[in-house]
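quick one, 196 residues, struct below
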Amino acid sequence: GWRAYVDGVEAPIYRADYLFRTVPVAAGRHTVEFVFVPESVAAVDGAALEEEALSHSPEILEADAAVRRDEARLDLARRQLKPDFMWEAAYTNRGDLDPMVMGTFGLRLPVYRQRKQAQGIIQAADQVEAARLDVSAVRLKVVAQARDLLARVSRAEALARLYAEAVIPQARSSLESAAAAYSVGRVDFLTLMSDF
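---
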């Protein structure tokens, strides 16, 4: 939020006429500064930021769904090792002829168990492992992006503090010194402008 400083000392801010902000100042000459510091930037918690990024990342949700899909494929491949019973019923209306009713019952045996079904299980297990590694990679990527954003915020805060505490006061002091020298006639206008 907004912060106010009177001669470099933080002062309370009051609302005036519903829309404006005011700061009480004693009689005399003072320097009043209003500074806006977003609260979201001022209190960034790195661990909370990473946790939020991990819990709301669509890339992680997609990778988790791929793991579940591949686990279901692995379960199906394991079921292919067992015999499978089949049955079928059909009814056909043949117009003027008698209707036809048909039923079949069958048994599917995993005859090529070692050459076909076992290899399918190995492939499905490898796909599950690859999907889990993809989830880990995506999680690392999201954490790295969150840490990069946090580092950018830190750098921006440090730069803002540097400007507020060093660069701007030094420039103001230089300008005031040059303006004072110009007002007494010790320097010309071009010198005043170049010092600014």
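The longest strand covers residues 84-92.
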